[in-house]
């Protein structure tokens, strides 16, 4: 008898269907719901970037590129990193990837094997846990509740001879919390002390409302990063959030040359390369001023805090476009049950258990127009009562 289930590898059973997808399925019958669930910018790709991609396509730049990425894009990215992180010197590698998600997949396939443990801050980006499992490793969760700061005293007791890697995400998805300079320094020093690969996922770097002075240009502000304190960091960044290029699949990884070289080899036999026309557009994306868009999201962030801060336990998000409120204790329900109540009122939010080993919170995305956001916040205030 033909049994298709016997062809499915055991490792796939460790991966659940996305909890976000389950929310969408549950809400599929709703007509015109108020959607505060989507994790992507609500503005379009800037026209200059679109035109650069169109020009590349029309000029015939549609074929494979070098696996590591095009020379112009690598040169542009390297120039920015050399300016921001002069401690890197010349001894670091760089790889253009199919989004930061693609970089994470390459990283896990390159560095994680059965028996390895990977430290993951809880709450976490939904992909971290499942990619570790897919690579055969063991995710070990570092509890960061209630302030969501990843501190050494929370990490160190979990480190043993099997620990290989520590994931770091600032600004954070799902909490929006930005790591302080002190946290970045202490985490970098701890990783160096224990010989761990520290992976800094900074995909939301432009959407950061709590920056620190640039050491070289005190009049400018930058996002604090572990790379300010150690060169033994694998940095992941991308274009999806900053320039609304979520469907364009473009990111990059920079870090220890040997790790990047191995990731490049894996990319050769998986993604092959990032999309060629996307790389052409990425080379000039850095020149596009998005400061007004970032300011608009800061205003939305402030509105979320003002409207629901008195009704929910909520750590102020310093970046990205998410908030992660706790379900009020007096309601006596889990995050999942709370979300079902919200959906009954045509409001889509994501249960916290999708991003955490706990199910006590829920995630809001304020990447939507102001009218929708106001409607959603009204419903949340009503639900809290």
Walk me through what this model shows.
The protein has 385 residues and is an alpha/beta fold. The protein has 2 domains: 4-44 and 290-384, Aspartate Aminotransferase, domain 1, CATH 3.90.1150.10; 64-285, Aspartate Aminotransferase, domain 2. Helices cover 36% and strands 15% of the residues. It is built from 12 helices and 14 strands. It has helices at 19-26, 47-58, 71-84, 99-111, 126-134, 152-155, 181-194, 257-268, 276-285, 291-308, 335-344, 370-384; strands at 34-35, 92-97, 117-122, 138-143, 163-169, 197-201, 212-213, 221-222, 233-238, 251-256, 322-323, 347-348, 350-351, 362-365. The strands form 4 sheets. It has a 7-stranded mixed beta sheet, with helices on both faces. It has a 3-stranded antiparallel beta sheet with strand order 11-14-13. It has a two-stranded parallel ribbon with strand order 1-12. Helix 7 (181-194) links the parallel strand 5 and strand 6 (197-201). Helix 4 (99-111) runs parallel beside helix 5.
Averaging pLDDT over every residue, what do you get? 92
Span of the ends, CA to CA: 56 Å
Query: What is the CATH topology of the largest domain?
Result: Aspartate Aminotransferase, domain 2
How many structural domains are formed by the residues?
A: 2
Strand order of the largest sheet: 2-10-9-6-5-3-4
User: What would CATH call the homologous superfamily of the largest domain?
Assistant: Type I PLP-dependent aspartate aminotransferase-like (Major domain)
Strand count, sense and closure of the main sheet?
A: 7 strands, mixed
Strand content: 15-25%
């Amino acid at each position: 008898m033909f049994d298709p289930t016997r062809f499915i590898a055991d490792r796939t059973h460790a991966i659940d269907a996305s909890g976000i997808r389950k929310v969408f399925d549950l809400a599929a019958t709703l007509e015109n719901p108020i959607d505060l669930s989507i994790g992507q910018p609500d503005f379009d790709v800037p026209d200059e970037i679109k035109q650069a991609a169109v020009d590349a396509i029309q000029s015939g730049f549609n074929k494979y590129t070098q696996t590591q990425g095009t020379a112009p894009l690598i040169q542009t990215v390297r120039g920015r990193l050399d300016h921001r992180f002069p401690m890197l010197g010349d001894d670091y590698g760089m790889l253009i990837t199919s989004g930061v998600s693609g970089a994470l997949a390459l990283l896990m396939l390159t560095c994680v094997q059965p028996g390895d443990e990977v430290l993951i801050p809880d709450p976490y980006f939904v992909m971290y846990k499942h990619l570790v499992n897919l690579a055969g490793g063991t995710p070990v969760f570092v509890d960061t509740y209630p302030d969501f700061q990843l501190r050494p005293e929370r990490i160190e007791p979990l480190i043993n001879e099997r620990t290989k890697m520590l994931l770091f995400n600032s600004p954070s998805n799902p909490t929006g919390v930005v790591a302080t300079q002190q946290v970045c320094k202490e985490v970098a020093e701890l990783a160096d002390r224990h010989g761990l690969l520290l992976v800094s996922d900074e995909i939301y770097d432009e959407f950061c409302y709590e920056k620190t002075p640039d050491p070289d240009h005190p009049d400018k502000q930058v996002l604090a990063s572990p790379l300010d304190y150690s060169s033994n960091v694998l940095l992941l960044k991308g274009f999806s959030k900053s320039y609304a290029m979520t469907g364009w699949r473009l990111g990059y990884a920079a870090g220890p040359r040997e790790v990047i070289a191995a990731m490049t080899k894996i990319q050769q036999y998986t993604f092959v390369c990032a999309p060629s026309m996307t790389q052409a557009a990425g080379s000039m994306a850095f020149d596009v001023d998005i400061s007004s868009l970032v300011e608009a999201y800061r205003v939305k962030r402030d509105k979320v805090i003002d409207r629901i801060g008195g009704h929910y336990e909520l750590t102020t998000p310093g970046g990205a476009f998410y908030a992660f409120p706790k379900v009020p204790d007096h309601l006596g329900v889990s995050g999942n049950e709370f979300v079902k109540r919200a959906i009954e009122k045509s409001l889509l939010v994501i249960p916290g258990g999708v991003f955490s080993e706990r199910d006590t919170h829920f995630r809001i995305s304020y990447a939507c127009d102001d009218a929708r956001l106001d409607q959603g916040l009204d419903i949340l205030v009503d639900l809290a009562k």
